[in-house]
Amino acid sequence: MDDNKEIEKLQRRIERIKKHLSELGEMRPGSLSTQYNVCGNPTCRCKRPDNPIRHRPYYQISYTRGGKSKTEFVKSEDVEKVRLQLRNYHTFKELTDEWVDVSLAIAHLRKKE
Ligand SMILES: [Zn+2]
User: Fold this and answer.
1) CA of 27 to the centre of ligand 1 (A)
2) How far is the CA of 105 from the centre of ligand 1 (A)?
């Protein structure tokens, strides 16, 4: 394949990346984790030596933004929404990385000419 054809192919890839990016919805960085309550009450049923009943887990999201790490509580009814936002962010990062790689490939092909 000659370089011009290759460049056109790469440019079409960039157009597809842009289209995909425009379709991404809400996003957020970070990772979701499940936390088990550490209960402060020594007489609570979660502290019973025989057959302790643990508290329901809760969710939190941790992320770093502008050099600062943050952790936020996530309501259990919001977990699915947050998972989707995390997936979107991951896709966003992959697509923008690919956009840069494809742009570099185009730049290198043009330099050869
Ligand atoms: Zn407890």
Assistant:
1) 34
2) 58
pLDDT tens readout for residues 51-81 = 888 888 889 999 999 999 999 999 999 999 9
Domain ranges within the chain, ordered by starting residue: 3-112
What amino acid is encoded at 62 in this protein? S
Centroid of ligand 1 to alpha carbon of 4 (angstroms): 68
Q: Report the candidate in 26, 90, 36, 39 with the shortest Cα–Cα distance to residue 60.
A: 36
| Whether the predicted model's global pTM rises above the 0.85 cut | no
Residue 94: other Cβ atoms inside 10 A: 12
Whether the pLDDT of residue 37 is over 80: the answer is no
- Angle separating helix axes 79-112 and 3-22, nearest 10 degrees: 160
- What's the CA-to-centroid distance between 81 and ligand 1, angstroms? 28
Kindly give the distance from the C-alpha atom of residue 49 to the centroid of ligand 1, in angstroms, as a whole number.
12
